[in-house]
Amino acid sequence: MRIMNILHDSVVDGEGLRTVIFFAGCPHRCYGCHNPKSWKIENGTSMTKQQILEEIISNPLTEVTFSGGEPLYQASEVKDLAKEIKAYGKNLWVYTGYTLEEIYNSKNDDMIETLKHVDVLVDGRFEMKKRDVTLPFRGSSNQRIIRLKEGRKSDDNGQNSAACRG
User: Fold this and answer.
1) Cα 102 to Cα 48: distance, rounded to the nearest angstrom
2) pTM over 0.85
3) Phi and psi (nearest 5°) for 156?
């Protein structure tokens, strides 16, 4: 996998204390992106699933967040990493520029399979015109926090979502 950075002890990338894996590569290229260097997959460092897992389990107090770039850009490898993380009993948040509906409609089996291991999905592209620094855990008001593992039928914006699939 191509990784931009691994950040330990974050409190802004999901609930609680988190280890954040920043993946390289992003097709969205949102205007105002906080990490434009992550757009090119070549800017990342190659790491194996085992190397990333060792970083994650080195701190037993943290949960895990995938961010980017676009984590689902490398979905064929990310799905396996997500599965392993869940085997360690970790809570997993994933930030993606895709909406939940786009993921399911893509019929990309790797992206859909990844969702089976995700507790919370923060979906939607960052939109500078909808930027809102008062929102917890997201940058623009179009982005949703969808709790996939709690069986909720709405996201944290109170909107109906397809979060209960799978």
Assistant:
1) 28
2) yes
3) -75, 0
